[in-house]
Structures are given as structure tokens and as C-alpha cells.
């Protein structure tokens, strides 16, 4: 029973969010990062009052180390992750492999649309429809990494956490069955 209590303290949503923020700090392919998965996971597993706040704080703390960038782009990045957290809140009572994959994909698409619009709005491309399309077109290689990273990390966080929960609960259920047989 003591081992179970230690395991429950060790493996909780805050630990996974900490791991996600830390993973952002190690070298990785551009946009292949765990941040959207962290926001989805936080929305799905944290208490509603912390579901959006904790992942954004983790993102901010990792930005303190990585460095800040264009305020307009930062606002768009943080906004897209808040939206991912809101999708996670929606997902909380609808978790299934299918809905988790759809949520991760939707988060990737929102991030792509919002952040590249901000880059265009910030003047990196001509302020015309052609400039906006160029912004989106040139970002497609990054979008591929975004989707792959979001799907990978979402799968690891959600399935890993659920497996650990089942591992913890299974011995408890087994010991309850044994006491019923005694």
C-alpha cells in the first residue's frame, strides 16, 4: 500500500507538465515540441481552476530560459496553447483514442493558422493576400513537425498516464478481490 501512495504522488499531471516543459529545453527538430500536448493534457487531467494556468506558467518558465521573441508572435503562441487547453477541457469527459487524436490535430491546425497569421501581421511578409499565402506556404515544413510532435507527445502523455493509472488501480482491485475471498 505504501508503494502505491508513493507512485500516486510521483506520477501525476503536474509531473507530466514539468517533463513537457523540460523537454522543450533539449534540442529537437523545429516545432517538434511537447507544448500543445502539455496544454491538452493539462486541460484534460488538471482541476478546472488550474487546467489553463499551469501549462501556460510552464511555457513561460521555459521561455525565460529559451528567450523571448516578437511580442505579437508570443501572444499568438500563448493564445494557441490556451485554445489547446480549452480543447483539453472539452476532451476531459470525452477521452477516447479517436477524440484525443482529433484534439491533437485540431491543436496543431490552430497553432499553424494563428501563429503564421501573426508572423504575416508582424510584417515578415507583404501585407497582402499573396503575402499571407506565402507565410502559410513557407511554414508547411514546420507544420509537418508540429503535427508529428503533437501527435507523438499527446500519445505518450495520455496513454502513458492512463497505463500508469491502470497499473496503480489493478493491484488495489486485486487485493480487494482477495479480501472478499478470505
TrEMBL record:
InterPro entries linked: DUF6580
TM spans (from-to): 50-69, 75-91, 100-122, 142-161
UniProtKB keywords: Membrane, Transmembrane, Transmembrane helix
One Pfam family recorded for the sequence: DUF6580
Record protein name field: Rod shape-determining protein MreD
Amino acid at each position: 500500500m505504501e508503494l502505491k501512495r508513493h507512485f500516486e504522488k510521483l506520477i501525476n499531471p503536474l509531473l507530466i507538465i514539468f517533463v513537457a516543459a523540460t523537454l522543450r529545453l533539449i534540442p529537437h527538430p523545429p516545432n517538434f515540441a511537447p507544448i500543445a500536448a502539455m496544454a491538452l493534457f493539462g486541460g484534460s487531467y488538471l482541476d478546472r481552476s488550474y487546467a489553463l494556468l499551469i501549462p501556460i506558467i510552464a511555457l513561460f518558465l521555459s521561455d525565460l530560459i529559451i528567450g523571448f521573441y516578437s511580442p505579437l508572435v508570443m501572444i499568438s503562441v500563448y493564445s494557441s496553447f490556451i485554445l489547446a487547453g480549452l480543447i483539453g477541457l472539452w476532451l476531459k469527459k470525452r477521452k477516447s483514442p479517436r477524440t484525443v487524436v482529433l484534439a491533437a490535430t485540431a491543436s496543431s491546425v490552430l497553432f499553424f493558422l494563428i501563429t503564421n497569421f501573426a508572423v504575416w501581421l508582424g510584417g515578415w511578409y507583404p501585407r497582402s493576400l499573396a503575402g499571407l499565402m506565402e507565410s502559410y506556404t513557407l511554414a508547411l515544413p514546420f507544420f509537418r513537425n508540429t503535427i508529428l510532435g503533437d501527435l507523438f507527445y499527446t500519445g505518450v502523455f495520455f496513454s502513458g498516464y492512463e497505463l500508469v493509472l491502470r497499473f496503480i488501480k489493478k493491484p488495489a482491485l486485486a487485493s480487494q478481490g482477495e479480501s472478499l475471498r478470505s
